[in-house]
């Protein structure tokens, strides 16, 4: 999706120094396809990860909020990941949370694990 992205400012969000960005679909068609008129995104300066995203529906109303926390480097690497993620759907008064206790990067998975047949079988 093509977006027009503007950097507004730097701001502290949930203890992280962040860049505040605004992403807006470049056309009415893209706006309709995504269902969002804009997203305000806060990116952690050190980890380069989104720590908060505010989603606005096509009427300009704040409809969802994504928040990430417990950001730390993955053991044995210099790569940061979010160990807690939460999406709040304001219009439905619903929250979905993801918690990770262990993350491993650069696993030695066989390419066979990612074939269409294997993925559809749910193995």
Task: Report a brief summary of the structure.
The chain has 123 residues and is mainly beta. The chain is built from 2 helices and 7 strands; from the N terminus they run E-E-H-E-E-E-E-E-H. The two termini are 32 Å apart.
Describe the structure.
The protein has helices at 28-34, 116-121, and strands at residues 3-13, 16-25, 36-44, 50-57, 62-73, 80-89, 94-99. It is mainly β and 123 residues long. The chain has one domain (3-121): Lipoprotein localisation LolA/LolB/LppX (outer membrane lipoprotein receptor (LolB), chain A), CATH 2.50.20.10. A hairpin with a 4-residue loop joins strand 4 (50-57) and strand 5. The longest helix has 7 residues, at 28-34. It is globular. 11% of the residues are buried. The mean pLDDT is 88.
Task: Compile the SSE list and pairings.
Blueprint lengths: L2 E11 L2 E10 L2 H7 L1 E9 L5 E8 L4 E12 L6 E10 L4 E6 L16 H6 L2
Antiparallel strand pairs: 1-2, 2-3, 3-4, 4-5, 5-6, 6-7
Q: How big a fraction of the residues is strand?
A: over 45%
Task: Please give the number of β-strands.
Answer: 7
Helix content: 10-25%
Shape: globular
Largest sheet: 7 strands, antiparallel
Give the mean pLDDT. 88
Q: Which superfamily, in CATH terms, is the homologous superfamily?
A: Lipoprotein localisation LolA/LolB/LppX
Give the count of structural domains: 1
Within the largest sheet, what's the order of strands? 1-2-3-4-5-6-7
* Reported CATH architecture: Clam
SS-based structural class? mainly beta
Could you list some keywords that capture this structure?
123 residues; mainly beta; seven-stranded antiparallel β-sheet; outer membrane lipoprotein receptor (LolB), chain A; 11% helix; 7 strands
């Amino acid at each position: 999706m093509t977006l027009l992205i503007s950097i507004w400012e730097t701001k502290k969000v949930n203890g992280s120094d962040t860049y505040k960005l605004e992403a807006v679909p470049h056309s009415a068609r893209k706006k309709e396809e995504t269902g969002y008129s804009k997203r305000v995104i806060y990116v952690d300066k050190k980890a380069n990860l989104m720590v908060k995203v505010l989603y606005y529906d096509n009427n300009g109303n704040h409809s969802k909020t994504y928040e990430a926390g417990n950001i730390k480097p993955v053991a044995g690497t210099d790569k940061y990941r979010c160990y807690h993620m939460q999406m709040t759907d304001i219009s439905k008064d619903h929250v979905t949370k993801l918690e990770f206790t262990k993350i491993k990067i650069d696993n030695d998975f066989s390419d066979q694990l990612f074939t269409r047949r294997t993925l559809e079988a749910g193995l």
